[in-house]
Specification:
Chain lengths: 478, 441
């Protein structure tokens, strides 16, 4: 494969590109969706192709094709150059590009059982049985899904990189939906839209779906008759998976350097952060320590090299409440004057690599969830995301959760439905006053992060444990 | 197309007559020229050839997708698929294959657009606001769809489309505009840029206003987002099956000024004239004078609900997604933009929504924000630009009886939260819209 890649790269360089790199991917996926004790969809997919990019002046040119014949590879290199050159009609200053050490290496995700070698019957039975149990226990509809990805990726650059990686990802989830009079209520496990990690079939087995079906079915039905979440301002305790999404939306996207530089302004937006505030801006309370760590074993965004050949690494993003780092690639880092973070990845061979969150997580604190609840006089504990929305500066957010639990004088008193909370990013994070410890720290994964034009779906990780936020506005309703 | 003919010839004869089989191929050339900070920074071009195989026998269904390169040996490919079919799960909602009589021959040889044409349109856009910061894209798509099945159906179609989409930013504001067309030559990038530039300049130094219930005039993109949410979460028959659709077919659920039609047969409609089963799509009344008339069906949902198939099956989305209309057209009314503004005592104009998410599908309560051009209207005049507001509002109620004051007299393709080119809509003047938060949360 490296020989094929170098044919395309040589073609781009010989055409006049100042730099070129290329990837060939063999991407396999398996997806199983179940409903009410039956398979609803079962699909397997395999795609093979090349993506090559060429840097000419101020623009990247990118071309991708399924055709790996020699003629096609030569044409691909030429096209990548010509596409970049066409940008000169509306050009700017030449794009700088930080040097990365030339690496020849290979890496495979550590795993016990390759999910594509496990019998589909075993996988189907697991998810179908879970939905059947919930249906029998009174769910109006019960849903389950499993997804597996096996991506073989060969990367070469005009600087001499030759890297092979085999990334294996697995996960899924189950949900119980109860339909009432003009309303629906849902409970999901391990989190809404499923939980995903790098690893094999053992990841899914560790979820032990069957131990959670009864609780989900019962809670989704109980929510129909539960009172509404009250409106007001009180202490908010977030369960880990909801806090993971809060990190994703209000920190992860905000610290993407391409957004800060305006490259995503038309679609995903920019950021409330400006580079001159790096190492000065107070992002949150002193309990807030956020790192982007692509080396965490088992987390969803763990790899050895990014799609520019930069080694995976751990970067401090927020340290004791102060903004200290960004998510960057070789071009954006050169412009901003920081070290490239190894955070550039693409959604398959057909997309241009771009800045992507790795495992952007909140380091654990000292408390336990029990201690946090015990010390809360008037608050609410919210679990499992149901809706999420944030402005294009990543400041004004509103989240809805599947369930809320009212806390009075350190005791959980009642379940409430349709809980929502809203806030402004720095104020919210500055109000974090308690954080659960490493015993409750989970590597939550988000498999559906949309960004870029053409649209790309990214897999990102967000380690988190539950935390408390003082004086939060809750209970916004339509 | 040669690669389809070769693929079909290689695979067709290896499929046993006892198996129901559907084979599809989508060949695409898509390209997107992206600009930011008033320069082109990313310029991409992709050629893909994806194949979709469905086999059904003895109550079991196999569903796979590959690209051409992944199919290394056609004999082994079919033999392996037939073996896997035996191990596939029971499929109780199988609804059969489309009949031979539905075959449609729409394939055309069309020349792809070159990157210089896109770059020149970007230049035209950027030139309309040289003193501001421009960002956006110009994209072109050329798609060829081929569908064959063991019922003897052999359908094909070709679709091309082009879009220009961009914003201008000042230190305190942004303004956006969008256009779509079948042919790139029908895009007027200068006019699009001019609209975005005016919105950005007019929006400078916005004032924050208190949240609350306001009369609103919604621009094309904001209207488009409301309708795409109703389409995906309401009219999709899968939502009905799952108990989550808010729609009441045949009842006076919307204001009588709302008439929505799906128009795949129209000459200027973007997209394929056939659905993902190979059957020809037809124009369809979706809402007539406020009364919802139909759900969007696939083969499976129409069988499960015992309703007529409306040919809204999409390629590559899996049959658990359901059906979506791709050519929705909200009928125009008689009110001009200026007359809408002059009819407002105190209200808000919103160009587009951002990051909308459903709180509960059955009530269609959605939260989101405004961006890229929002203004306070007082005594029939736009008086000042306003800052960010968060709304939490049922999209069903927003178009409910008595809440639609008027419908604009011009419509165009508009972007929505879910993408480009699916809806053609006018502006709407609504009596009440619920804003629940401002810039301070």
């Amino acid at each position: 494969m490296f020989d094929l890649l170098n044919i395309a790269i040589d073609s781009a360089i010989n055409s006049g590109a100042k730099y070129s790199d290329a990837r060939i991917l063999v991407s396999k996926s398996r997806s199983i969706a179940a409903k009410n004790g039956e398979v609803e969809n079962f699909n397997e997919s395999e795609k093979v192709g090349l993506g090559i990019r060429a840097l000419v002046g101020s623009s990247w040119g990118f071309y991708s094709t399924y055709d790996l014949s020699r003629e096609s590879l030569i044409l691909s290199g030429k096209k990548a150059f010509e596409i970049a050159k066409a940008s000169s009609v509306v050009s700017g200053e030449e794009t700088p590009f930080t040097h990365a050490p030339v690496v020849k290496d290979e890496y495979t995700t550590p795993h016990q059982e390759n999910p594509f070698k496990v019998s589909t019957t075993e996988q189907i039975d697991l998810i179908v049985d879970s939905t059947e149990q919930m249906k029998k226990l009174g769910s109006s509809r019960s849903f389950g899904r499993l997804d597996f990805w096996d991506t073989e990726k060969w990367f070469c650059s005009s600087q001499g990189h030759e890297i092979f990686q085999n990334i294996i990802e697995s996960g899924g989830g189950i949900s119980s939906l109860s339909v009432g009079d003009g309303e629906t209520q849902i409970r999901s496990y391990p989190q809404s839209f499923g939980e995903y990690r790098t690893g094999g079939w053992e990841v899914v087995k560790s979820f032990e779906f069957k131990n959670h079906t009864e609780r989900l079915a019962e809670e989704s039905q109980r929510l129909l008759v539960a009172p509404h979440c009250p409106e007001g301002t009180m202490d908010l305790i977030l369960e880990g998976s909801q806090l993971a999404l809060q990190i994703h939306e209000s920190v992860g996207h905000a610290v993407e350097l391409d957004r800060i530089l305006g490259w995503e302004a038309a679609y995903a937006g920019t950021s409330h952060l400006e580079l001159d505030k790096l190492n000065k801006h107070k992002y949150g309370s002193e309990l807030m320590n956020i790192v982007a760590d692509a080396t965490l074993p088992g987390a969803l965004a763990t790899f050895k090299y990014d799609d520019e050949g930069t080694p995976a690494q751990r970067v401090d993003i927020v340290k004791e409440g102060i903004w200290t780092g960004v998510l960057s690639g070789r071009d954006s880092a050169a412009i901003a004057g920081v070290n490239p973070g190894g955070m550039v990845r693409a959604d398959g061979f057909g997309r241009l690599p771009m800045v992507r969150m790795t495992n952007v997580g909140l380091l654990p604190g000292e408390s336990s969830l029990e201690e946090i609840i015990d010390s809360t006089e008037n608050g609410i504990y919210m679990e499992t995301n149901r809706s999420w929305s944030i402005d294009d500066l990543r400041l004004n957010f509103q989240f809805g959760c599947e369930v809320g639990w009212i806390i009075k004088n350190g005791n959980v008193t009642e379940m409430v439905k349709n809980p929502t909370y809203t806030g402004i990013t720095p104020e919210f994070w500055r109000n974090m006053d308690m954080l659960a410890n490493k015993d409750e720290w989970i590597f939550w994964g988000t498999p559906n992060c949309g960004k870029g034009q053409p649209s790309q779906i990214g897999h990102t990780g967000h380690p988190a444990s539950p935390a408390r936020f003082k004086n939060t506005r809750i209970g916004v309703r339509g | 197309m040669k690669i389809w003919t070769e693929l079909l010839n290689n695979l067709q004869e290896k499929i046993p007559s006892s198996v129901e089989c559907e084979l599809k191929m989508m060949h695409s050339k898509s390209a997107l020229t992206r600009f930011a900070n008033s320069q082109i920074h990313q310029n991409v071009d992709e050629e893909s050839a994806d194949m979709y195989l469905t086999m059904h026998k003895d109550g079991k269904t196999l569903s796979r997708s590959y690209n051409l390169t992944a199919v290394k040996n056609s004999k082994e490919f079919i033999e392996e698929a037939l073996e896997s079919l035996k191990e596939s799960p029971e499929d109780n909602t199988w609804a059969g294959l489309t009949n031979k009589t539905e075959s449609h021959d729409g394939y055309q040889e069309i020349q792809e657009v070159n990157p210089d044409e896109r770059a020149n349109l970007v230049k035209d856009f950027v030139n309309e606001g040289k003193e501001m910061n421009a960002a956006g894209y110009c994209s072109t798509y050329l798609n060829n769809l081929f569908i064959w099945n063991t019922n003897g159906l052999n359908s094909s179609d070709t679709s091309e489309s082009a879009f220009i989409d961009g914003i201008f930013r000042t230190d305190t504001s942004a303004g956006s505009s969008h256009r779509g067309a079948v042919d790139i030559k029908d895009l007027n990038a200068s006019r699009t840029g001019k609209e975005a530039a005016k919105l950005a300049l007019d929006s400078q130094n916005p004032t924050d206003i208190d949240p609350g219930k306001y009369e609103v005039i919604l621009g094309h993109e904001a209207v488009s987002t409301i309708l795409i949410f109703l389409s995906v979460y309401g009219f999709n028959a899968k939502s009905k099956i799952d108990g989550m659709s808010p729609l009441l077919i045949g009842e006076n659920q919307f204001d009588e000024k709302i008439t929505l039609i799906d128009t795949p047969e129209d000459e200027d409609s973007i997209g394929f004239k056939i659905d993902a089963t190979g059957a020809k799509k037809h124009n369809l009344e979706v809402i007539k004078n406020g009364i919802p008339k139909t759900y969007f069906h696939t083969r499976r949902t129409s069988k499960e609900l015992d309703m007529e198939n409306t040919q809204h099956e999409l390629l590559g989305w899996g049959h658990n997604f359901g059906g979506i209309a791709t050519n929705l057209n909200l009928n125009t009314g008689h009110t001009s933009h200026d007359d809408m503004i002059s009819g407002v005592k105190r209200g808000i104009y919103i160009n587009e929504f951002w990051y909308c998410r459903v709180l509960d599908p059955i009530t269609q309560v959605v939260t989101g924000l405004n961006r890229n051009g929002s203004f306070l209207i007082e005594d029939g005049k736009i008086t000042k630009p306003i800052g960010r507001l968060r709304f939490t509002q049922s999209f069903i109620t927003s178009l409910g009886q008595g809440n639609v004051i008027s419908v604009g007299n011009t419509s165009r393709y508009a972007d929505s939260e879910f993408g480009e080119g699916m809806l053609k809509v006018p502006e709407l003047h609504l009596k009440e819209f619920n804003f629940t938060g401002g810039v301070s949360g």
